[in-house]
């Protein structure tokens, strides 16, 4: 245990001196070997609460053990002393067997812990890559949305220009009809005004030439409008593909894992913290 003012932290000797940490999913693990960035816990009524994630609480059950003073132990008869020595020898052999089994179990648990840490690290790396990809897709979607808005604005301006040109064409057509009527009237009224008629015909030709130019401009604008509509359709298709990609990226499940922390006490009075992993959680990982 590490203490700083009202907070405490937990180190693990079998986890290479790493400190107990909590990730964003609320999972516990000894993943940070640097002492200056240790996780802080606050004592509460049922155990210890994480200072950063208030909903993460570790509960501890304190189990009392009976002890005795070996100095005050006395034996009344030699028979009882011999039986006690035999019992003590058998207990020591049993304790050695238990210690050997405990060491083997600790070795296997360390291997399981290392494998689980590697898998968790790979999972975190994969999640970070997916988050980066999602962020890039969101930025691309924003750019496409801006381009789509610009295309719509350009289409509206093109429609306004086309309507203005059509109204100008109608006005020019009306002027041409009026000039034609005037020319016919002048021809019928007086043949002496032929020179004036030639001048009017020249103006009429200029107006018709201008109308042809306007017709060409209208055709060019219509072609531009058709290309903009095709570009808009392609943009909408790309947007649908991006939405499907984003929905597929968000549908990847992340399975929860947990690390159980047990507090035990040896027979000689020394305390230690042993971290184990659930077998079913390791298999699912």
Query: How far is the first residue's CA from the last residue's CA?
Result: 30 Å
Q: Strand order within the widest sheet?
A: 3-4-5
Structural class assignment: alpha+beta
Residue ranges: pLDDT <50 for 5 or more in a row?
Answer: 68-77, 254-285
Shape: rod-shaped
**Considering DSSP H and I runs of 4 or more, what fraction of the residues is helical?**
55-70%
**Tally of separate helices:** 3
Strand content: 5-15%
Radius of gyration: 45 Å
Average of pLDDT: 75
Query: Using DSSP, what is the number of strands?
Result: 10
What's the structural domain tally? 2
What is the string of SSEs from the N terminus onward?
EEEEEEEEHHEEH
Query: Can you summarize the main beta sheet?
Result: 3 strands, antiparallel
Describe, in plain words, how this protein is organized in 3D.
With 285 residues, this protein is an alpha+beta fold. The chain has 3 helices and 10 strands, in the order E-E-E-E-E-E-E-E-H-H-E-E-H. The chain is rod-shaped and about 160 Å long. Residues 68-77 and 254-285 have low confidence and may be disordered.
